[in-house]
Amino acid sequence: MANNLVIDSVRDLGMQFVNNPHKMVGQDGAYSIPLNGETLWFFGDTLIGRRTPGESLWYIDNQPVGPRDMSGMGLIEKMINNTGLLLPGQDAANGLQKFKYILDDKGSLKNLIPLIEGEDPDKDRIWCLHGVALSGKIYLYFIKVQMLESGVAPVNFKIVGSGLAVGNAIDWEFKRVMYNDSFIWWGKNDPRFASAVLKDSENAWLYCYGVRKDENSVQNCYLARVRPEQIESYESYEYLISNEAQWSKEKSKAIPIFSGVPNELSVSFNKYLNAYLAVHSFDLSGKIVGRTAPNPWGPWSEPYTLWVVEKKREKELPYPQLIYAGKEHPELSKESGKILYLTYVEFEEYFPHLIEVTLK
Questions:
Q1: What is the pLDDT of residue 168?
Q2: Distance CA 213, CA 302 (A)
Q3: Which of 272, 280, 288, 291 could pair with 265 as two cysteines, CB 3.0-4.6 Å apart?
């Protein structure tokens, strides 16, 4: 399928949430989930404290931080697996100026999906995926990883699987949803649903996109769907098994819908394009790309480059530059989707970085 994306102009709006009253000095992920009149932004690992001038966040006293919880290392006071903030409706043309972090009863950034008994903060992480608000509840998909002694950050972990947590906007307490005595719904060999969640126009289905690295080390995107009222029922999910939009509850039959996508992306319906739009980082190339399709399942176009990140390091480090977490935030878009707002994360910078893209 031909890609109908054509760029008119692009603006780099810089790092977001840097000026905050909570000593937050870096966080990744940055999924956005529309609520009633505002948006929940869901983040992964979040660092509280101070940065050491001229040093990498990940090398303290010239030593790699390793796999352990960074709380108390160097000038980092605390590391939180996942956090969130609320963003009221606003024009993003000058950056995201208005935001309010979700706090615990002590006034500190709240860990939305905390570790549970048997999990070790030096080994286990619960990282953000996407989510959705339904019938007064908020659903957050997540991925669990275990940190490894070998390897250098940011690739010193292995994937355990992904699952679902449910909570609300009153106390922001989230509990994981169990299936067969486990909160891991999709295991290490399954696609990690849901890296993106899409409501269809009639609210009849939720489409859940998940990514898996296949045998040839290619990252492929797969698609599941579920009725909104059955979101908490693992057995109700169906998987796309053919290009003719056939579905099955046998996840082993699922087919990839496109490739070259890391574990994070966004999918939305763009009125200006009259098409579905997927946005993601392209491998580790530094490119943020878009793909279009007439249906949530495709056929998806080849990737079209929306932005190329060019970030120079202040000092040489023993791992390649990592640019990831590319996605669109459709609730910020303007003129029916002609003007788009994207974020990505560069691992050393370690803040969501906002880009404005205007289509022709």
A1: 96
A2: 19
A3: 280
**Contact status, residue 178 vs residue 192, Cβ threshold 8 Å:** no
Do residues 141 and 197 touch, judged by C-beta distance below 8 A?
yes
Alpha carbon distances (Å) from 131 to 70, 76, 108: 27, 29, 23
Q: Is residue 268 part of a domain?
A: yes
The range of the structural domain enclosing residue 97 comes to 7-189+262-359
Number of domains, the chain: 1
In a domain, 280, yes or no: yes
Residue 284: give its domain's CATH number: 2.115.10
Phi, psi of 8 (to 5 degrees): -95, -50
C-alpha 121: how far from chain center: 21
Coil, strand, or helix at residue 90? coil
Condensed to tens digits (0 to 9), the pLDDT of residues 19-63 reads 999 999 999 999 999 998 899 999 999 999 999 888 888 888 888
Query: What is the predicted pLDDT for the residue at 55?
Result: 87
Is 240 part of a structural domain of the chain? no
**Is residue 148 domain-resident?**
yes
